[in-house]
Amino acid sequence: MYRKNSEKNKKNDDFSSSKTIYNELKKNNINYNDLVKFYKIKKVFDEFKEVTPEIIKKFEEKKIEIPVSIFSKKLSCLETIVKYLRENLDLSNKEIAKLIKRSEKTIWQAYNSANKKLPLKFKIEFSKYYIPVSVLSDRKLSVLESIVKYLHEYFELNYSEIARLLYRDNRTIWTVYSRARKKYGKRK
To answer: Residue 157 maps to which CATH number?
Structure first.
């Protein structure tokens, strides 16, 4: 009978009750101040556990930006971006595919092709312009169209400046931008 009552009382003890605190102090030879610190930390931890999904979501939405200085004549824009994300930011093909809304197979092919053309890892130099990866997730536009449209409209660069940055011909940039504008109904 005594055992049942004591078990029942244990279940009813609140974690922060004075009886529990006293028992913890006595049982483990713990300093009262240390125990108070522990409970404060526990309280913060419990609050953090409630907020964690929101924090994780914010970290996932963290802006990943691609420096324009990595583009070269040797690689296509998609190959350049995939190689940078894979080697410099250590993202998996699956993560890259999710970020830019392309298939994993496309990412795999782009990475293998880029590695054959340029086996060395990118050396990142200072870049005045950065392209957020979120720009590339628009499936209405090709990767090059997305980049050109972003550089032209956000940074207000002219076609020759964009061509120089991406190592492409001026006429190619003009054509790509006009194609992107047509897809979006000529709005800027």
So the answer is: 1.10.10
Q: What DSSP assignment string belongs to 15-58?
A: TT-HHHHHHHHHHHT--HHHHHHHHHHHHHHHHHHHHHHHHHHH
Please check whether residue 102 lies inside any domain of the structure.
yes
One domain for residues 175 and 120: no
Q: What is the pTM of this model?
A: 0.66
pLDDT tens string for the chain (188 positions)?
555 555 555 545 445 555 666 676 667 666 667 767 777 777 777 777 666 665 555 555 557 899 999 999 999 999 999 999 999 999 999 999 999 999 999 999 999 999 999 999 988 888 899 999 999 999 999 999 999 999 999 999 999 999 999 999 999 999 999 999 999 875 54
**Phi, psi at 66, each rounded to 5°:** -105, 125
Tokens of 135: 């720009």
Residue 89, domain member (yes or no):
yes
Does a structural domain hold residue 151?
yes
Tell me what percent of the chain is helix, strand and coil, each rounded to the nearest 5. 70, 5, 30
120: containing domain: 73-125
